[in-house]
Amino acid sequence: MADLFDKTNIGEMTLQNRLVRSATWEGMCDQDGRPTEKLINCYRDLAKGGVGLIVTGYTFVRPEGKQMPGKMGIHTDAFADEMMAMTRAVHDEGGKICIQLVHAGGQTDSRNARRQPLAPSAVQTEQFPEVPQELSKEEIADIVHAFGDAAGRAKSYDFDAVQLHGAHGYLINQFLSPHTNKRTDEYGGGIENRCRFLFEVYRKIREIVGSDYPVLIKLTGSDFLEDGLNNEEAVYAAKKLSEEGVDAIEVSGGTPASGEQSPARTKINRPEKEAYNLELAKNIRKAVNCPVMVVGGFRSYEVADKTINENGIDYISMSRPFIREPDLANRWKRGDTAPAKCISCNSCFLPGIKEGGIYCVVEKKLREKKQESS
Ligand SMILES: Cc1cc2nc3c(=O)[nH]c(=O)nc-3n(C[C@H](O)[C@H](O)[C@H](O)COP(=O)(O)O)c2cc1C
Ligand code: SF4
Fold this sequence. Notes:
The chain is an alpha/beta fold. Helices cover 37% and strands 14% of the residues. It has a single domain (8-373), classed as TIM Barrel. The chain has 14 helices and 13 strands. β10 (215-220), α8 and β11 form a beta-alpha-beta unit. The longest helix is centred in the middle third of the chain and has 20 residues, at 137-156. The protein binds flavin mononucleotide (FMN) and iron/sulfur cluster.
């Protein structure tokens, strides 16, 4: 029987348990993308809390790939000291840290990107105000190189792994999806062509970091859009990635355009609503040879345990539960297996935009109430 607290390996990386802090934008960097002491402390707390692997918030590989304020950048060597302090802080606590690499593509605006956003096609996506500029082949090649350079930097800063962001409607997902990719050249059309950009990025990274360094991907299992990438196509991409040697696939689903099926769904208030990407992940698990992680709505120990034991999934990934309880892994390990306290309200986004960093608003209010009454 698999146990959530099994020690496992992903490539050359040994993990203390099967719990992963899924990539979570914290909004704790300066306007250029330089990490702050607050962000380093956030990762230190997560490592102290016992989670097996921390995936950082999405980190832009080129300046125009930036989306949210306070997002981290790895487009330059200028932040090497802060990045090395970050990996040291996690390693000193016995943790492991993987950096998530992203280009936001058309899902940004010129205020954050500091230019007109770039995308596979000039298709405006829901919730984003500008029509992006279609990428030329030269620009595609430049971005592929930028992903490779970013991964090389990450390895030299002692990150234990890199993870490509291939979900939630960002650039890699934009190429994969017929909803946003209307190209008529070799990057558009059938799924083989729509995968081309992803594979160019993956191979460039592999060329730079070598065959032993863990390269992971967070892959959309479906866009949940009528004209978007479907699960069958995602399985095709996952199978090919596995054949090429990707070290693990974290399955998510949806984009900001997917309405109630967006990546961070609300009202996860009973076990049946948990694990909302599990069916997508199960289909991917059957097709690949590498470990599979699944993210989306995990809140209870029992659902997590069942997922690894009955569905062959290797890792359980969570984001919001660790915002409210950075020590959730240690709490479950100690035997207090009550569900995560997160009520999936998404109120934590706002302080990331307005107050220089996310935190659990519900927990803060509760503490203030307790203090008032004591
Ligand atoms: C505040 C916040 C920031 C997020 N930032 C990222 C990110 O940087 N990269 C990413 O892949 N997903 C990001 N997500 C999505 C989560 O990783 C996760 O896929 C989603 O919240 C569902 O998992 P959960 O139910 O465990 O929260 C973010 C979610 C939240 C709530
Ligand atoms: S504000 Fe707190 S309870 Fe609400 S989603 Fe964020 S972490 Fe969970």
